[in-house]
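Reminder to self: keep the SMILES exactly as supplied, no canonicalising. Ligand is magnesium ion.
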Amino acid sequence: MTGRTRFGPTALIGEALEGVGSKPSRLLITVLGTMVGIGALVLTIGLGQTAGGQLTAHFDSVAATHVEAAPTSVKGADGDGHASSALPRDAAARASALAGVDASVLLGEVPLGDSTVTAVPVHDPSSPTLTPPPVWAADGDLLGALDGRLAEGRFFDGGHQQRADRVAVLGKEAADKLGIHSLAGGPSVFIGSHAYSVIGILESVDTRRELQSAAIVPLAAAERDFPDLPPPGILALKIAVGATDLVSHQVPIALDSAEPQNITVAASPTTTALEGGVRNDLDAVFVLIGVITLLAGGLGIANVTLLGVSERTGEIGLRRALGATRPQIAAQFALESLITGALGGTIGAAVGVAVVVAVSAASGWTPVLDLALALGSTLLGGLVGLAAGAYPALKAARTEPADALRS
Amino acid sequence: MTTTAEVAPVIELRGVSRRFGSAQEGQPQGGPVTALSEVDLTIRPGDHLAITGSSGAGKSTMLNILGLLDRPSAGEYYFDGVATSSLRDRRRSALRGSSIGFVFQSFHLLPGRSVLGNVLLAFVYGSVPRSERLRRASEALDRVGLSHRLAFSPATLSGGERQRVAIARSVCGGAKVLLADEPTGNLDRVNADAILTLFDELNADGLTLVVITHDAAVAERARRRIGLADGKLTELGATP
Ligand SMILES: Nc1ncnc2c1ncn2[C@@H]1O[C@H](COP(=O)(O)OP(=O)(O)O)[C@@H](O)[C@H]1O
Ligand SMILES: [Mg+2]
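Structure tokens returned for the bound complex:
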């Protein structure tokens, strides 16, 4: 006899949309909260990503004074990276002859195998040994190329290289580990069975900081003492400010004129890693600001929706008189709140993206934006709206129709 | 001609009481109030009933119970033969939406919607097919003499016109019973008369009417008059 209720999703959405649109001035105020919150979120993250991207590019192209050349690594069929060619033995000399290159050093790690590195000759093989410090072979101006400083002594030079002298410079940490605190008394390190005279202790290096825990020896000596030594794979360069483009172009030709594409020039890894750390910190602050603004926006929606529920008591009573159930009333108010939030999120994202693009255009940057962020804004706004509308919707559903229609 | 007594009642109250301010009502302001006290009432299809009484006599409480907007504290209310006290909210809402029309003193039109939009609201929670809704809403508005005002906003209408929109909304869904709480309370004499004439016409077409009023002139238009005082009913008379 009595009609089944047929208040389906279409009807619900229709009523919610009418409800949302019935008071444009109120809608504007309600939408504003989420809009500003999500707009700020998109803007801050977008600007963070864009600025971060520019920062890296900036370092790469203009301000970078430390770069490295290495054989281009090619993905082999087995998926591993393989160096397609080696750096020439005289790479350091060739590179330092180029305009824009202030200093260069050819570096390679010496494979130690079972050899130990100690400050005294090992007579008792059963005595406990620490992990030996790594040994690096170097040819060229290491202090100049890596902005290194000596704590004591001197660095080996061309003469040492020519004679393949067994001399070593210890990184500060390596010296501590080996118990060599000064050059007084002419200390030596024993690398395998060979004694190397320690002629210097390194205070610091600005890039390739791993050298601080290493023993550094002349490449020529390492080549003689360690037949397994592979050709050194790193040419570290100190270049003039603004010379990156020139150097990136010239160094590969100088090192491999036949196939310059076999040599890749990139910013020193230390520089980018440092930059990445700064960027992540900035991102976190940006996101936090956006989230706080968004929470404030959510509270705004909750407030206005609650106000709407008490203002629309008569409407709630009328809908109940027309056959609405309590869940249907709750659903309508929750959906209205959700739509408001989603609308705010969408507009906010659009505004945020527009500002990021405008700022980028004005600064000559390439805008970097996570597409998921822009698209997810609608969803996020909707979720904020839904959460904010939950209590008001419940309150609307609890309204007694008899009380609601009293006025 | 058959007498109404032979037709099954559409509304039947048996020993219905409604008390306010008991513990579960939450807000006892100066002790519990008995708004309705063991009321028995039978209303048959086609009746035109007026319930009168002074302010606070329990008239609105009575209408809320008849309209399934409120539940009796005691007794049983049969609507169309169905005992309603055991029905769940969902069933009561469906019954209310499909069979009972409401007209309020303050119209309760949604200001953001057109005249037609307000009438169409009657179908939102019901089962009238989408294809029929516009026709039935237009017919109802035609019937109350407002077919030239379909796209108007309620704010631009006079009080009498607003109440006619509300009446169109209450009858277009196929209600069996129309419950009106002080329907002319906000209207002048002329507009009130027009509404009462409309009620007479609707009643002549078979709609059961229950009009609550404190206005003797409005009560005179009904065929059966009931007085309510301190929650108790008295038959005041009937016009054959
Ligand atoms: N929700 C309620 N809570 C407490 N008391 C109420 C409530 N509704 C009505 N009453 C009381 O019940 C009595 C009848 O009220 P009502 O039915 O509105 O009278 P009328 O419509 O005849 O003026 C009054 O004393 C009123 O204060
Ligand atoms: Mg009243």
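Points to follow up:
The two ends of chain B are 13 Å apart (CA to CA).
Chain B has a mean pLDDT of 91.
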